[in-house]
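Researcher: Structure prediction, please.
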Amino acid sequence: MSTTSSSPTEATETPADTGGQTTNSGSDEIDVSAVEMAIHREINQRRTANGLDKLEYRSDLVEVARYHSRDMANKRYFAHDSPDGESFGDRYHQFGIDCAGGENIAYTYWEENIQSEGGLLYHDSEQDVALGIVNQWMNSTGHRENILRERFQSEGIGIYVAEIDGAIRIYATQNFC
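Model: Predicted structure follows.
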C-alpha cells in the first residue's frame, strides 16, 4: 500500500458529531487528538523554519476538517468535493466560516507497510502518523504552497480513522484561514 495525498484546494471566502475520537486497531489505540496536535506543531515548525509566523489553531476549522475526514471515510472517497457535490467552500459556508481559505487532504495507514519515495514506512505512533502526513504535504507543490502561504493565519486539523478493506486508514484534512 502506498501513502496517498490529493491536490490542495484554495478558495475565496459546515454540522455533525465532530468530537475527538480514539480508535482501536487491534491492541493499539490511535489518539486522533494527539495526531491533530502533532500535525499542528509540525506545521508550525515548518513555517517558522521558512521565516513565517506560526498558525493559530482554531476550533471552528477543526470542526470542518473533522467533518470532511469523517465524510470521506464513511462514503469511501478521497477528494475535496464529496460524491454529492459538496465542495470545500460549501463546507466553510455550512460551518459559518468566512475567509479566503484553503484545504489539504491526505490519508495513510496504521500498522501497515507503506511504500514511499523515501522507502518503506510503518506508522505505529501518533507522532509517526503526524510526521508522515506533514511530509506528504511538504513533498507536494500545491500542499506545500498552502502550508507556507503567508496570508494564512490559522488552521484546523481533522483526523478520522476507519477500517477500509481490512486495513486501518487514517484520513487527514487541514483547513486554513
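Model: Strands lie at 4-5, 9-10, 22-25, 28-31, 56-57, 102-110, 113-116, 119-122, 154-164, 167-176.
Researcher: Thanks, that helps.
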